[in-house]
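[step 3/7] inverse_fold.run input=structure_tokens len=378
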């Protein structure tokens, strides 16, 4: 059996029987192995609730046992009845393909899968690409993958599958990739070799920004940089941080209202206030800033759609390896909500008020008992 050179090949390998195993090495080029024997796999670690164990081809209506092992991924073997051919398709191409749609699964039937490849199961899906209500559909899922995704749904996670256009036209969903978005913790992929070909590659490229990028990938195409995101501290500034990372975040303005006793304080070092998110560090403001206009304390901040936004005090003019301590943690969703209240000069702006009786000298020595409040501006 020979396959085409588009993302549809990945789906057809699953839908037409046999086992479609995508392999992506450091160059991202995938190949396909097709055989007459089905191969089951899992993508579980101890952090992933209810993910089935790896191996075996026995079909069952109950989820297999969980395992702490990494995802099972069969290797290519040369033997009679096995054909190896390059697809000239990579995980990068799939991630960037605007023709691949997304559906969120809200229910997966517990009956064994059926169809020519024993990988079709009844589901209910919500079209995330064009919107719409839940509808009946056929999911391209093996019994093992269906059990993993069903368990994720039962744990309160969101499940998103990607589908090529011609497969979707037949009422089917899935077959390209499946992403689980837990309420807490990093998103992950489910499927044969998904841990190796998706998660490991994306973590290699994006590092600490992995979770935010995969969340964005679950909603639509993502442009993948050809070079890994630097492993060192990332400062979220245009020209320094990768454009793909910045585009995955929302930009707001933070206006600080600082204690009066901090202004013009004489300190033994240059200390700054700075916000931090999982993707990196934002702009900084000198702790002892002096300015008659409240707007002079405004700095930019890139923040995610959800998660924590931390406020830190750093020494050595903003050296992330010289932290004095964390002053506060804010909810990103609340900051975004408040930022949308602003009009005119205050558009996209929130105010962070810091209150304390401690002097600047006492705070930099570690007395971090400060109160912080966040408010919107009109």
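[step 3/7] decode complete -> sequence:
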């Amino acid at each position: 059996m020979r396959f085409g050179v588009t993302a549809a090949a990945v789906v057809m390998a699953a839908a037409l029987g046999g086992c479609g195993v995508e392999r992506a090495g450091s160059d991202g080029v995938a190949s396909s192995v097709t055989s007459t024997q089905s191969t089951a796999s899992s993508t579980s670690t101890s952090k992933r609730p209810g993910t089935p164990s790896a191996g075996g081809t026995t079909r069952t209506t109950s989820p297999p046992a969980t395992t702490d092992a990494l995802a099972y991924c069969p290797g290519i073997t040369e033997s009679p009845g096995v054909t190896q051919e390059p697809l000239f398709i990579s995980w990068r191409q799939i991630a960037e393909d605007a023709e691949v749609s997304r559906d969120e699964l809200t229910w997966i039937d517990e009956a064994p899968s059926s169809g020519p490849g024993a990988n079709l199961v009844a589901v209910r899906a919500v079209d995330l690409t064009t919107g719409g209500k839940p509808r009946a559909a056929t999911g391209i899922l093996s019994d093992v993958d269906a059990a993993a995704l069903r368990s994720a749904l039962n744990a309160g996670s969101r499940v998103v599958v990607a589908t090529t256009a011609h497969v979707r036209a037949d009422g089917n969903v899935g077959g390209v990739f499946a992403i689980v978005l837990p309420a807490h913790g990093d998103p992950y992929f489910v499927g044969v070799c998904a841990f190796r070909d998706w998660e490991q590659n994306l973590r290699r490229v994006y590092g600490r920004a992995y979770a935010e990028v995969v969340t964005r990938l679950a909603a639509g195409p993502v442009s993948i940089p050809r070079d890994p995101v630097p492993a060192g501290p990332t400062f979220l500034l245009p020209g320094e941080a990768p454009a793909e990372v910045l585009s995955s975040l929302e930009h707001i303005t933070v206006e600080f209202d600082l204690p009066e006793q901090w202004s013009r304080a004489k300190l033994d070092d240059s200390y700054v206030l700075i916000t931090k998110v999982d993707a990196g560090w934002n702009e900084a403001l000198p702790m002892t800033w002096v300015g008659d206009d409240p707007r002079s304390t405004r700095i930019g901040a890139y923040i995610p759609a959800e998660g924590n936004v931390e406020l830190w005090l750093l020494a050595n003019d903003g050296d992330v390896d010289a932290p004095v301590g964390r002053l506060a943690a804010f909810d990103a969703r609340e900051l975004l909500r408040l930022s949308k209240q602003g009009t005119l000069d205050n558009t996209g702006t929130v105010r962070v008020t810091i209150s304390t009786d401690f002097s600047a000298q006492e705070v930099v020595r570690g007395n971090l008992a400060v109160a912080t409040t966040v408010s919107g501006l009109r």
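[step 4/7] annotate
The first helix runs from residue 8 to 15.
The radius of gyration is 25 Å.
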